[in-house]
Amino acid sequence: xxxxxxxxxxxxxxxxxxxxxxxxxxxxxxxxxxxxxxxxxxxxxxxxxxxxxxxxxxxxxxxxxxxxxxxxxxxxxxxxxxxxxxxxxxxxxxxxxxxxxxxxxxxxxxxxxxxxxxxxxxxxxxxxxxxxxxxxxxxxxxxxxxxxxxxxxxxxxxxxxxxxxxxxxxxxxxxxxxxxxxxxxxxxxxxxxx
Length: 194
Prior knowledge:
This protein is of the alpha/beta class. The chain folds into 2 domains: 2-40; 53-192, Glutaredoxin. Helices cover 44% and strands 20% of the residues. The chain has helices at residues 2-40, 96-111, 127-137, 151-156, 179-192; strands at 45-46, 49-50, 68-70, 76-78, 87-91, 119-124, 142-146, 163-168, 171-176. It is elongated. The termini are far apart.
């Protein structure tokens, strides 16, 4: 009988331990789910805390900071030199969502009116790791390679990748981590000017 009581106590303790571990695992899985959703959306954590989905650059209506950079072709580029309604894209060669949206950006940039000089792509990384991305972007857009936290990223307030920004009159007209959101705003602005 004593063995039966000891066995029941042991089973009870093991069950309580199992329950405690299960609660801890479930809580950690919830934390990971939030972090994973943020990373997939291109959002990051910063000194402002966890950014809302889509908030990877300056919000709509914000003034864009001044910048000057040199393209991969050796030419100078500034925001003012990109025309009336420039499209800007930020990519990182190590970013999976960047790779997924790169083809759509190239396709849209090739079909967008205004020519190559009204589009700017910033590839964040070293020249070696950025070479393939630069090669795909160069035929349809002006390309700059800069290191993490570079001057163009600071001017646009970029905190995650990819980031797509549409500018009008030195202000952000649209910014998002999904290209289609910026394409929709670009189409609306184009039809409003006709």
